[in-house]
Amino acid sequence: MNPVETEGLAVSEVSDEAALAPAEPPRASQGFAKILEFPRWAYAPPVSLNELADPVVERPRILEVPEVVPPPPAMGGITIEDARPLEPERRPGIDMPLRSAPLGLRLWASLVDALIVLLACGVFAAVFYRIAGTEPPLWEMIGGGVGLGCILWAAYQYAFVVLCGTTLGLRAAHLRISRFDGGPVSRRSRRSRVLCSFLSGLSLGMGYAWQFLDEDALCWHERVTRTYLAPPA
Length: 233
Hints:
By secondary structure, this protein is mostly helical. It contains 8 helices and 2 strands. The N and C termini lie far apart (162 Å). The relative contact order is 0.10.
């Protein structure tokens, strides 16, 4: 074997040994040390991947919902609403019962007024007998007394009721003339009441007898004028 081949064989063996031998770590230089730096987290340490995540809880949130303006109605704002039946107005004395004076107080007031009219008739008869000096026949006395009593009764009722709003009999029974709605009775209403009461008496007393059939115990003239005798408070 020539020297060249021998030398090439030795080099190949050395290279094979160098490949099989473990590599030695590089030696640090005497003046500098090699430092390994690890990454740092800016805010918090890294989260371990083995930990479980927090459960997701959906909490209700209050949101401001913009007010929704309804669109304007069609046909220029004309809407069709359900027609609600209106309750009819209840009229006192017709739809609502009245608390009128009882019959006993009415008779007591009429009796007091009748005694006053009879007293006036007696005074008139005494004056007439004093002036005439003669006594008329019986039938003339009865007819004259009845006619005089009606005239004095009408004058008495008209004067006291229209001008004063009451009579002595009504004062004695503590009764007052009132309207159906409870308002004050005007002089015109009192005049109408007196005139209509004459018609109730001229119809053979049927206007006064109507109070026994009326549900509120009212006479004809009271229904017509919408007035009644209120009991004492």
